[in-house]
Model the fold of this input.
Amino acid sequence: MFEDVLRSLASGEITIQEAEEKILSKFFEKTDELMLDMERDKRQGFPEIVFALGKTKEQTIAAVEKFLERKGIAFVSGLDEEKKRELKDRFSDYVIKEAGRLVVLKRENTTLEKLNGKVGVITAGTSDVPFAEETSLILEELGVSVQKVYDAGVAGIHRSFYALSKTKDSDLLIVFAGMEGILPSLIASLTDLPVIAVPTPVGYGFGGEGLGALSTMLQTCVPGLVVVNIGNTVGAAAAAVRILRRIRKDGQASENKRSY
Done:
């Protein structure tokens, strides 16, 4: 990756400062207002997701253009309907998938390294589904198999047990809940699978907008329940990918040992 830069430096064709700039350019795409982390997927195993909330339409489009040019795929989260329309119009020649406030744009036939693994995605209510769909879309684009069970909240606890039975063969579970947010704790109390809890901004009155759900999840009595911030669908996907990559690495190491 850096051989050409090092050769140029060694031969005196470029200065140390120029070499530093060229090496940094391998990792980043820079504009006046953006410094995009192009190699995050290689470093962390999870791509940079363009966070559109707070960015102008022009900044969002510029970021997407850079990712499509370098990587062939761009993930954009936190989109409102206006920015979503802008992206669809501007990049109509690309394959576009959307879920909730997330959009994935990619060149035809662009493929990412397939991450083998299976994730169960469970929601307490139907109102939580848009958040679950965002996480699911990211995982599916990264080659993860997703088993979805929706509307499985504790108001009808038989539904919660049904959801667990349908996802028991997964490597890990991601559970979304608003309101009082008890479902992730219930699920985690019944399985040895890793469980990632995502509070959603679904609710009303005191503790509404996800605060009650987040408080419940953080105060859980179930050891080992992993909790992300309210509506953090990207963080949930990233945590799942880290776990799956570790599982795969350990599995490959075991296979190598057996082959000796």
